[in-house]
Each structure stands twice: as structure tokens, then as C-alpha cells.
């Protein structure tokens, strides 16, 4: 049991946790800035990004695709701004215009190009394949101390860990300006915080988290984790720091519980096969949010 | 067209009707700033589709009955909509957070159910994945008829609700005084969006159907300020995108219906963004350039009237091209005449603006419009007489005022 768990379940759980936390952390600020749907937009445009990267390089390898996805995310953010400003369109609709068009373009490119022999399809982009990120060289818990086996950890795990650390570092380092500009943009401006630049940096960091998480676990977790844990935490506290910590905790709980329920739940119910872990993690985070909306002490705002 | 076949024709008709309904509904959603709610509705259809499939199989059926699947989709998207409303009203979360939460969680749960179906069906391909991106290839005749009829019915409902939706979008408070209940009209609007989403699942797919509700509406908004006309135009563009997208995708392999429809709509949007009169980018650029030219011309003329040389290069070029100054900067006769005219106009304005009785007219001062365009010759003569008899006033004659655009 131990060896099987370390080889088959531990890496996906860890990757899921890291992805969840990396998205939930910036999600707090996006939520408070009423930009919650940026995560949605970014995760839709990742598809055209990786398809274009694939068409340009002709291979399915991680770095070009990550770059393509990140590029697409930046293009999308810029286009949303342009459409919003130039066309004087409200932000929600501008977002809808850009991400649906780019996603449609991505699907069309994918269908038109010969990708039948490579593992690149819409389903994979949407809900990833968390279950396949296994660590074959592990033979038990002691493998965690074995450098030779550690060298064969799924590369997604290392990447996700680095990105999660970068995201956390960004938020810790820029905590005060981020908090001030989130709550009172005008005041932040008067005390000399580069508000616009900071907002852009937040979006870029979110995009980075989304792209890395997408590579490991698919878009659906990304959107859910950007919104559900921060939203649930928001209904529990008025303090930003507390909210961020709670959201990270809830993200971890969603990832672990979701993975376990997806992997072992059906077995307990007598079925043979696991269900989608990504979908289950999103579902669990939704149930947590539902609970917070029903019972959260701060669900109605300051008064109650 | 000949070899497209009866099925494609039916699908194209359905997609066209659906597109019109989506355009009209989307226009009202957009005017009410609720566009992205439809994104939550559409993603929330997935668990319903999957549950309907499981339910129908459990009853011993085949599970692929389109009406049954769409019924399930409608029910679960209704649940999603209810949750969005509930989160927005009962908690302090914004509508954007509520939308994102509902779309990701319902969609995630739908994915879980899809994997359940894969294991349940033991070898049976449910084909429910086609609802993600839509697919009209190899569609059954009965399904095509369902879509065509559904599109027609939705459009009919749209036309019936058109008046109240226009009134509420234009001015909800005024509509309330006319005996309408805006909340109820909004609910009707949402019901239409739900119907469009459900019918569109098979053609456009649940990820992209929201585009059909947003793109034509936003595109139409560029062309007019009137709610009713926005709806009409959006309907035309939506119908065009739906029908032509369906036909285009049937013409060649590897052209998935949903994305093609969305890209046609996106092309219409881009054309509107660039070419629409007044609100379009091109019109904006032209208006800006004309304004800049007028300002430079005016300021150049006023400088000439003072006997200054014009150093600013754009003004110099403008004046030179109009034959008002020579290449060496010396003023021509024509230039002197126009400069005097501009100076006199500026004097008249400044006199008018210094007088309380001129306030109404002075409000229209923009530093560019000649006063002769705004008053009758008689008024102008009276004004000149007043200036002449009041020559020693605060704004002495011959002095060009500070005021500029």
C-alpha cells in the first residue's frame, strides 16, 4: 500500500495541492478587485497559445507550450484592454468577446492541423490528466530520500513547486502595496504606488500560475481555484491576511479531498474505476464555497 | 449548395434562427450588463446533460435522446442560474465571483459525471463530449428537426418579449412606472438566454455558445444608440453568423461548426469595431485628426493676426498648404484676411463670454466654431455694435483673449 501510494497517488496529490495554492493566492486579490473572471479568460486562451506553439515548433514539449500559453494570456489581457478602451465596452463583455474568439481560433487551428498523432486535444486542455502524473521509480516512502529515484519525479511537480513558490514570494514581497491598491486605489496612487503597473504584475503572476497549473491539471481546476477558495474565505473573515491564509488552506483541502474522493470514492461505492480528479477537486471546492455561503460568519458583509 | 443535403439545410436553418434569437437576447443582456451570466448558464448545462444520460440509461433507454439531454441541460443550467442569483443577493460576493464559481464547479462536476458514464457504459460511447464544442457532423434527422424547431420557438418567444425587454433595457425605472416588473422581465430575459444556450449546445457547444450571446450584441452596439435597433442588428448579425457558420463547416472537413460560427461573429464584431460611424475606431481617428487640424489652423491664424511668426511645424504646414503663408513664413493677402477674420471672431466670443446675457450662447464656445454659425446676421450686427460702443470694456478691442480650446 505504502509503495503504491508513494508512486501513484503522492505526486498527483502534491501537484494538485501546489496548483491549487498557486491559483488561490492571487485569486484573493483578483476577487477583491472584481477581476475574478480574469482566471476564466486566461484559462480559455491557453489552448490557442499551446496550439500555436505546437505549430511553430512542431513538437509537444513543455517549454515552448508554456511560453505559447503565457504569450496568449498576455495577448488576451492586452486585447481585452484594447477592446474595452477603444470600443468603450464594459469589461465583462470585452472579456467575453476576446476569450471566446481566441478559444474558437484555437479549436479551429487544432482541427486543421495534423495533431492526431500527438497528445494534444481540447479535452486534455480542459481537464488535464492529473492521474497520469505518476512516479514510477518510487518503491516506498524511503524513495523520498533516494536521490536517484527523486531524479525521476514527474517534472510537473518541480515546475509547479517553483511556480507556487514564485507566486507566494510575489505576494509576500509586495503585500502592502498590493493590499493598499486593492482596497483604495486612489490613496495608493497618492502615496506613490505604481497602481497600474502593480495591477498588470498581478495579472501576469496569475497568468503564470494558470499556465503552469494548466499544464499539470487542466483549465477547470485553474478557474475553480482562482475563485472558490478565496470566495469562501472572503465569507469567513474581514481581514485580508486571514482571508489569504484560509483560502490557501481551503485550496489544500479541496485538492487532497478531491483527489482522494475521485480515486478511492468509487471503490468504496463498489465501482471499479476512478472518476476525474480535476473535476472532483473543482466540485469539492464548490461544496466548500456553498458551505461558506450558508454558514460563513461574514457572508453578508460587515454587518453580519 | 446542392450536395449539402437536407440535414445540413435543416441545421443551417436552425443555427440561423438560433443565431437571431441569440443576437436579440444577447443585445438585451448586454444593455443590462449581464452578458457573462450566460457563461455560467452554459457551463452549468454539463451536469444536466450527463445526469439526463444516466437517468435515461437507468430507465432502460438508449440515453442519447436529444430532447431528453437538452431537458436535463436546461434544468441544471436553471440550477446554476439560481445559484448565481443566490450568491449575488445573499452574500457579499460580486456577480463576477458568483459566475466564475458556478461555471467552474458545475463544469467540474459535469466532468466527474462524464467519467462516471465512461465507466458505467462499459464500451458504450456516449458521445457526450460533442456537447463541449458542438458537432453537426453526422447529425440525425430527428435531432436536426429538434434544433430547427427549438430555434424557431426561441425566436418567437424573443419577439413576444421584445417590447418589455426594450423598455427595461432603456430605463428600468420608467418601465416600472408603466406597469412592468423589471425583475420579472429580467427573468424572462434569462429564460431566453437559457433556451438559446440549451438549443445551441449541439451546434455551438457549451464552451462557445456564450460567444453567440455576446459578440453580435457588442458588435451591434457600435452602430446605434437605440436599444430596439441594437437588438434588431444583433439579431441580423447573429443569424448571419449562425447560418453561414453552419454552411461553411459543412463545406469542408475539419471545420468544426461551433468555432466557425463564433469566428464569423468575431469577424462581424471586428468590422463594427473598426468601421462603425461615430463609435468605430476609424471614425474616432478621423474625428481626432479633423479636430487637431482645426485647432492648429485656428491658433495659427490667431498668431498671424498678432503679427507673430508661426513656428509650430504642423501649423506651418497647414497654413502653407492653404496658401495663407509663403514657404518663408511671410503672410499672404489671403492669410491676412483670414487671420483678421479669426481675430474678430475671437473678439466677439470674448465679449459675449464677459456678459451675463451672453451666457446661453457662451456655453457653446469651444474655441473653434465661428460665432457666425450660431447667430443670425441681425444678432451679429447687434453684437458688433455693442462691442463698438463698449470699446473700453474689460476685454479691450484688439486684444486676443486667453480662451482657447
Describe the structure.
Chain A: The chain crosses the membrane at residues 6-25, 37-56, 62-80, 92-110, 157-175, 187-210, 216-237, 244-262, 274-295. In chain A, helix 2 packs parallel to helix 4 and helix 7 runs antiparallel to helix 10. With 304 residues, chain A is mainly alpha-helical. Chain A contains 13 helices and no strands. The termini of chain A are far apart. Chain A has a single domain (2-295), classed as ABC transporter involved in vitamin B12 uptake, BtuC (Orthogonal Bundle). With 405 residues, chain B is mainly alpha-helical. Helix content of chain B is 71%, strand content 0%. In chain B, helix 1 (5-31) crosses helix 11 (209-221), helix 1 (5-31) packs antiparallel against helix 12 (227-251) and helix 3 crosses helix 4. The longest helix of chain B has 27 residues, at 5-31. Residues 392-405 of chain B have low confidence and may be disordered. Chain B folds into 2 domains: 2-276, ABC transporter involved in vitamin B12 uptake, BtuC; 282-389, no CATH class. The interface between A and B is large, with 66 and 59 residues.
The largest β sheet of chain B comes out as:
none
The CATH architecture of chain A can be named as: Orthogonal Bundle
What's the mean pLDDT score of chain B? 85
- End-to-end separation of chain B in angstroms reads 59 Å
CATH superfamily of chain A: ABC transporter involved in vitamin B12 uptake, BtuC
Q: CATH superfamily assignment of the largest domain in chain B? A: ABC transporter involved in vitamin B12 uptake, BtuC
Q: H/E element string of chain A?
A: HHHHHHHHHHHHH
Q: Write the H/E string of chain B, N to C.
A: HHHHHHHHHHHHHHHHHH
Global outline of chain A: globular
Over the alpha carbons, how many angstroms does the gyration radius of chain B reach? 31 Å
- The helix content of chain B, as a percent range, equals over 70%
Strand segment count of chain B:
0
Which structural class should the secondary elements of chain A be placed in? mainly alpha
How many strands, which pairing sense, and closed or not: the largest β-sheet of chain A?
none
Q: Give the CA-CA distance, first to last residue of chain A.
A: 47 Å
Please work out how many helical segments of chain A DSSP would assign: 13
Total discrete domains of chain A = 1
Low-confidence stretches of chain B: 392-405
